[in-house]
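I'm stuck. Protein, please.
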Amino acid sequence: MRFWMSLFIIFMLSGCDNQSAKDAILQVDVFREMYNNNNFSDIYSSTALDLKKAMTEQQLVSFLSKQKEDLGKFKSATLLNSTVINNSEVTLSFQTNYNKDSFLELFVYKKESNGYKLFYYTIDTQRILKTDPLTHAILLPK
């Protein structure tokens, strides 16, 4: 009986994790649409409170403006890995194509009272990040 109950709990938790990842991926789609339309202030407005504490709107707008100037518009992406922690944080890594080249991207979303909000974002324009060949998770440089 305990085995079946444990299996049921694992199944239910994996379903929650799957929905959390789907919710965060939808937020990435919104981010990319705003990025392509130069709505960088709107991106900032939709970020997590912790990100707003860490950087100003002008800092994020400057970063994204420079990125768009260097890379061009977002074209397409392939999800490499998603990790959900306690249904409160979702990490997503992508192989992303822009007009000028292809890069690894990392998004971290935190759950707040009104849904998942962008907490951390980076793109590897220096090509120093690598992916694990088995999990496709981004490996940070040592």
About this structure: Strands lie at 74-85, 89-98, 102-112, 115-123, 130-131, 138-139.
